[in-house]
UniProtKB/TrEMBL annotation:
Pfam families reported for this sequence: HGTP_anticodon
Gene designation: 105620249
Span of domain Anticodon-binding: 249-323
Protein name from the UniProt record: Anticodon-binding domain-containing protein
Length: 327
């Protein structure tokens, strides 16, 4: 299957390549945002060392040194657009002129740089694998030298070719980035830098392709953390229901919808007749079903789209239930 065929299956409401540009549909933009937020949480919020936002590395280093905030190890984070060429072998005609990247530069003592490099390599590969439906698809490419630097690439393997999603580079000497200051006896050669750059655009493409090539089924799945919406609702109509009963159930769904949204869980409302199409198109992992009994005892049924199993959950536990399964 070619890349173009996979993209056609994915659908333009998620991602397409128009004139060799990444073009996201409504659901695709939400997936991209969720991927960036998950990356930020893992690479910026969670590390044991300090991570500082950065526009220009040299200027930020100077500011940190002047305020004595450059205690090793520490890192700088940059979110932006790169014009470096990635995955050019996949595009036989034109090149993608730019793509969105998330970059971390970790400054570390030379004695600890190798152990940190190997730790980052393992950590970043595992991070991608945890998001994939077929984890073994994400592997290390063959190590190579670029400008006398050791570069490791993480790639996703497909029948149509391999997609590089991240590069990890070890910089053994950073004198130009970390200039000496007069009367400063610090040995700047003892400071090394580990840089890892993830392409959000190419990463999204790889995860979309992975979700649609797991088997021959027409159904696709992505990790709940990345899904554009976590929940949609289904009203189970019963016989002898009055218009008043339907109105009560609609108000109950609106109550649940607002409760989940105020707790940071994304939902989407749809007509009952469109529930199957919406569930498939938006890759929604959970469907909450309500009926007249739910109004009396507060129990709803949550169906897992990937397993097709349904569990009874009280509405007071619904937020916790979904949060635990979407993390």
């Amino acid at each position: 299957m070619s890349l173009e065929a996979v993209l056609k299956t994915v659908g333009s409401h998620f991602l397409s390549l128009s004139e060799r540009m990444f073009v996201y549909g409504p659901q695709g933009k939400l997936v991209l945002r969720n991927l960036e937020e998950h990356w930020f949480s893992h690479c910026v919020t969670m590390p044991h060392y300090n991570v500082f936002p950065c526009d220009t590395i040299a200027d930020t280093l100077q500011q940190l040194r002047s305020n004595s905030m450059d205690m090793l190890p520490f890192a700088l984070v940059t979110l932006g657009t790169s014009k470096s060429v990635w995955n050019e072998s996949l595009l036989l005609v034109d090149k993608i002129p730019s793509h969105r990247i998330a970059k971390i530069n970790v400054f570390v003592d030379a004695s600890d740089s190798k152990s940190l490099l190997y730790k980052k390599q393992r950590e970043r590969k595992v991070w991608w694998r945890k998001l994939a439906q077929h984890p073994s698809r994400f592997v290390f490419a063959e190590a190579k030298k670029m400008r006398n630097l050791d570069v490791t690439e993480i790639e996703a393997q497909f029948p149509f070719g391999n997609i590089i999603v991240e590069t990890i580079t070890h910089y053994p000497g950073i004198r130009k980035l970390y200039p000496q200051i007069e009367n400063n006896k610090d040995n700047v050669m003892d400071v090394h830098m580990i840089e890892h750059i993830a392409s959000m655009d190419w990463g999204c493409l790889a995860l979309f392709c992975d979700s649609h090539m797991l088997d021959k089924s027409i159904r696709a799945y992505i990790h709940p953390k990345l899904c554009p919406y976590k929940i949609t609702f289904h009203i189970e109509k019963q016989k002898n229901e009055t218009d008043s009963d339907i109105e009560d159930l609609n108000r109950f769904v609106l109550y649940l919808n607002n409760m989940l949204r105020t707790r940071g869980i994304s939902t989407i409302l749809t007509n009952t007749e469109q529930i199957v199409n919406t569930e498939q198109m938006c890759l929604i992992p959970y469907v909450v079903s309500v009926d007249k009994t739910s109004l009396k005892n507060g129990v709803v049924h949550v169906k897992n789209r990937s397993t097709t199993l349904s569990e009874a959950v009280h509405i007071t536990d619904l937020v916790k239930y979904i949060s635990l399964r979407s993390s």
